[in-house]
Amino acid sequence: MVEAYQPSDAANVLDRDCTTLSRHVLQQLQSFGPEAQDLSALMNRIALAGKLVARRLTRAGLLEAALGFTGETNVQGEEVKRMDIYANDVFISVFKQSGLVCRLASEEMDQPYYIPENCPVGRYTLLYDPIDGSGNVDINLNVGSIFAIRRQKGEDLDQSASDLMSPGRDQLAAGYILYGPSTVLVYSIGRGVHAFTLDPSLGEFILSQENIQMPSHGSNYSVNEGNFWQWEESYRDFIRYVHRHEGYSARYSGALVGDFHRILMQGGVFLYPGTLKNPDGKLRLLYESAPLAYLMEQAGGKASTGQQPILDVVPSKLHQRTPLVIGSAEDVELVESFIQERQREQTTVAPNR
Ligand code: P6P
Questions:
Q1: Residue 132 C-alpha to ligand 1 middle, in angstroms?
Q2: How do residues 73-111 score in pLDDT, each as one tens digit?
Q3: HSE (CB half, 13 Å, CA atoms) of 91?
Q4: Whose CA is nearest to atom 14 of ligand 1?
Q5: Radius of gyration of the chain measured on its C-alpha atoms
């Protein structure tokens, strides 16, 4: 009788265990059911978008009209970069025919993009910031894409997307793609935080770090101190504290994804407080702060508005902004302690008359 073929040990065939993203999602869920297959397919689409954006970024300096500004301003009132639009449209293109989503909501679009009737429609919504930190694009510094996946609730027949006005705890998955010296995709579907590194020779994201856990404290504090006199006093109290105590390092790149990734990897705290001009701060809730808060809590850290957990905030509008304090639990709690101290003082000084 002919013996069954025995493949050689995988370690000899592959130069490492090539756990791809789609395989990892199915392993995570330990299921091949419809939702597991959907999430695996959704993550695969995200990975494809990331590869297309990464490819464009690495050659942008050589391509006509890839960099610079379009001359438009977006719903945020910010000048739009050509790369913002390119990346925004890449995500639409890779999801349009996927049959997975019904809508895509993005920083770059005033209203969500609804999948046209001549395309297959799915039951999920992708919320994303296609290029976060685009100010860094023209100077070849790190930028990122941030994403969150939610299940559509109801039929949204009036296309008001009102079902998206729900807290971040409704997210099914979230993550980001960091376009740096290597392209790294970090994601969670609620079972830990995992990082994949793009292997250009394979054109695949390969598992590089599994179950990332935050240290309870870290030396990094990441904030734009140029806004120091625009903040509430409590934030100035925190900065004075770190200035006076050894063991802290200021790290700020001007691009949220890179600053967040450093905090996730090394510990510490990132903060973007409200200012006199913008009391709700600059960062958007639905497609920047809530996805990163989801990851941070999965990694054992905390994410707060300064007053409450980011994931508990119920938005009232698609492009709602929020103050953000995110990172190691002890460091976020230290920032919150200065806020609470000031609130106690105000209550004491001006008791209810
Ligand atoms: P500032 C980029 O424009 C961004 O949205 C985030 O990526 C970044 O953390 C923040 O704004 C930087 O803002 O006011 O410090 O330049």
A1: 8
A2: 877 788 888 999 999 999 999 999 999 999 999 999 999
A3: 33
A4: 224
A5: 21
pLDDT at site 308: 97
Give the 3-state secondary structure of 267-297.
CEEEEECCCCCCCCCCCEHHHHHHHHHHHHH
CA gap 353, 127 in Å, rounded: 46
Is the pTM for the entire model greater than 0.90? yes
State which of 84, 224, 289 you would mutate to test the pocket of ligand 1, scoring each by most atoms of that ligand within 8 A of its C-beta: 224
Report how far apart, in Å, the C-alpha atoms of 347 and of each of 83, 177, 237, 238, 344 are.
Answer: 48, 43, 18, 20, 5
List C-alpha distances in Å: 193 to 68, 200, 209, 259, 280: 34, 23, 9, 17, 28
Name the average pLDDT for the chain.
93
Report how far residue 141's alpha carbon sits from residue 254's, in angstroms, rounded to the nearest whole number: 10
**Domains in the chain, ordered, with CATH?**
10-209 (3.30.540.10), 220-352 (3.40.190.80)
Which residues have any ligand 1 atom within 6 Å of their CB? 132-133, 135, 224, 254-256, 282
- Pairing state of beta strands 143-151 and 173-179? antiparallel
Nearest-atom index, ligand 1, CA of 259: 9
Is the per-residue pLDDT at 14 higher than 70? no
